[in-house]
Amino acid sequence: MRIIVAPDKFAGTLSAPEAADAIAAGWRRTAPDDELVLVPIADGGPGFVDVLSQSFGQEARLELVSVLGPNGASVPVSLLVVADTVYLESAQACGLHLVDKPEPMTASTFGVGQAILAAIATGARRIVVGLGGSATNDGGAGLVAALGATANVPLDQGPAALAGIETVDLAAVNATLAGIELLVAADVETQLLGMFGATKTFGPQKGLTDEQILSVDHLLDRYVEAVCGSTPAERRVADEKGAGAAGGLGFALLLLGAKITSGIGLVAEATGLRELAQGADLVITGEGAFDYSSRAGKVVHGVAQAASAAARPCIVIAGRVDVGAREIRALGIESAYGVTDRVDEAVAMAEPARHLQELAARVARTWSPNSR
User: Fold this and answer.
1) What pLDDT, on a 0 to 100 scale, did the predictor assign at position 323?
2) Residue-wise pLDDT tens digits, 111-135
3) What span, in angstroms and rounded, lies between the C-alpha atoms of 227 and 299?
4) Homologous superfamily assigned to 48-263
5) What is the 3-state secondary structure (H, E, C) of the chain?
6) Any idea where the domains of the chain sit in the sequence?
7) Are 68 and 75 in contact (CB under 8 A)?
8) What pTM did the predictor assign?
9) What architecture does CATH give domain 2-39+273-367?
10) Rounded distance, CA 145 to CA 110, Å?
């Protein structure tokens, strides 16, 4: 039996490669004769560069640069250089994992702009920016500031500093990016503003209160007007799919001429996931919490689509499963299994690899004809 093991990271505990290793180790306990092909996957968020680095192998090199993190401390960012293309991961510069205490009103994406400048300095003519997992909600104002934008208010001090914004000058940014192709690998299709926008949807997980959510959405609305104009046609970029990714980094990059693509789609192509699925008997994916956010744009959904296109069954092995059987089937997934179905969450978090292995070993008894 040939099995593709293609999980996302288990946020806060295991990277995608570590999760793949744990699932494979557990499966082999029960079905040692099965052939397991490990294909760690990412969607543009944390792990994006790591997964691509493994896929590209020797044709790529990593360069480490130091930038300002979301709260102003220096953080390292890896640039994955493949010929004249550079891949970078915004979460390394402004990710939620970088902050002990979220400060979303002042957190900035300035470091992402610095990383883009560093990518240009390598000689890149094409820059692919993975979006997801951010601690920021500044609409990418910090990013454009790092690239040379000016305004009548500070752009690099988070959404709170955008109060009173009236004008934004992007002339220096456009000059810096002349001749550079920008591509955004996004993990969500959220627009920037409104009831279904970035702030309302993801603000709470970044630490924004209900009152602050309303305030920040208003501030970003004024920011859009200052940088784009007041008419619906001028503001249309804020309504595009992916504009709300990473707290509005998608909006800033779209504004600068970037094209948005699915992060999971890009990684699936780079890893050859679709072709691998065609030669498999079973596809396994997983993530820390398999919930309603696992839909379009996320790893689990993308892997399930690849399995479905190849007419192969797909199952999920997750830390926690928070969706019902009907929703699971609607995503094209046969079954889902959670570590917390058997052990307390605190226990699971204490030894995530061990408990994931044990769960995979049990699941193999159901799915592998070679189980013992």
Assistant:
1) 85
2) 999 999 999 999 999 999 999 999 9
3) 33
4) Glycerate kinase, domain 2 (3.90.1510.10)
5) CEEEECCCCECCCECHHHHHHHHHHHHHHHCCCCEEEECCCCCCCCCHHHHHHHHHHHHCEEEEEEEECCCCCEEEEEEEEECCEEEEEHHHHHEHHHCCCCCCCCCCCHHHHHHHHHHHHCCCCEEEEECCCECCCCCCHHHHHHCCCEECCCCCCCHHHHCCCCCEECHHHHHHCCCCEEEEEECCCCECCCCCEHHHHHCHHHCCCHHHHHHHHHHHHHHHHHHHCCCCCCCHHHHCCCCCHHHHHHHHHHHCCCEEEEHHHHHHHHHCHHHHHHCCCEEEECCCEECHHHCCCCHHHHHHHHHHHCCCCEEEEECEECCCHHHHHHCCCCEEEEHHHCCCHHHHHHCHHHHHHHHHHHHHHHHCCCCC
6) 2-39+273-367, 48-263
7) yes
8) 0.90
9) 3-Layer(aba) Sandwich (3.40)
10) 7
**How far apart are alpha carbons 8 and 4 in whole angstroms?**
13
| Pair 16, 322: CB distance under 8 Å | no
CA 370/CA 142 separation, integer angstroms: 54
